[in-house]
Amino acid sequence: MIAQVIVDVAAYPVDRPFDYAVPEEWQALVEAGCRVKVPFGPRNVLGFITALKEETDVPQGKLKPLSQLLDIEPVLTGEMLQLAQWMTRHTLCFEIDALQVMLPSALRAKYEKTIHLSGPLADLPAELQNLFGNKSSIPYKKVEVAGFLKSLKYSIEQGTVQIKTVVKQQGQVKAVRKLEILDDEVKLQQIAADIPKRAKKQVMVAEWMVDHKGEVFTPEELCQTLNITTAVLNALIEKGAAKYIQEEVYRDPFTKNAVKTKPLALTDEQEVALQQILTAMKNKLPTTFLLHGITGSGKTEVYLQAIQSTLEKGKEAIVLVPEISLTPQMSERFRSRFGELVAVLHSGLSKGEKYDEWRKIQRGEVKVVVGARSAVFAPFTNVGLFILDEEHESTYKQEDSPRYHAREVAIWRSEFHQCPVILGSATPSLESFARAKKHVYTLLTLKKRAMQQSLPTVEIIDMREQLKNGNRSMFSEELAEAIRIRLEKKEQMVLFLNRRGFSSFVLCRDCGTVVQCKNCDISMTYHRSQEKLKCHYCGYEEQVPHECPECQSEHIRFFGTGTQKVESEIYKFFPEARVLRMDVDTTRQKGSHERILDAFGRGEADILLGTQMIAKGLDFPNITLVGVLSADTSLNLPDFRAAERTFQLLTQVSGRAGRHDKPGEVFIQTYTPEHYAIELSKEQDYEPFYMQEMQMRQRFAYPPYYFVVLIQVTHEDVLMAAEYAGKAVDWLRMQLSQNVGIIGPTAASISRVQNRYRYQCLIKYKKEPNLTATLQQLIRMYRTDWVKKGIQLTVDLDPSSI
Ligand code: ADP
Ligand code: ZN
Ligand code: ZN
Question: How far is the CA of 300 from the centre of ligand 1 (A)?
Answer without folding.
Answer: 7
